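(Fold this chain)
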Amino acid sequence: MTNFRILIAILSLITLQSCNKYDANGRLIKEYEELNKAKFLLGDWEKTDSVGTLIENWKVENDSTLSGNSFFVINKDTIRRETIEMVQDKEYLLYTSTIVGENNDEPIPYQMTKSTDSLLVFENPKYSYPKKITYKLTGEKRVTATISGILKGKNSSESYQLAKIK
């Protein structure tokens, strides 16, 4: 009976171990499900209108991080510059935004509150504007970015229809 228990224990360990993925050096490969849902943002996005051009770009920084930049350009002058990062920490996806000249150039964290393969919603109830940031894939090469919250004491929302350029 003891040999049977040892055999069961060994088979259980082998089964549990085989559920994990390893690289060529034997290191455990982590799965980042929530971050993978954000990969539709990878690349360069743009919106141009009579006021100026909004450019946002995203790239893979490492296995748990996407990094991005956002610029608003009017007549070749960059008016607003933002550095963005999405990091998966355990089961949470965190979105951090740092805007030059705002919030003492300190990053503002947002936590993902909803996600699908074509929708990401990040919120920070402690921050007034934006309180909520949403990215929605609306076509093969189209994303709507929406920021909303309380601005000057009133509910406010702005949406940007971005087209993929690379």
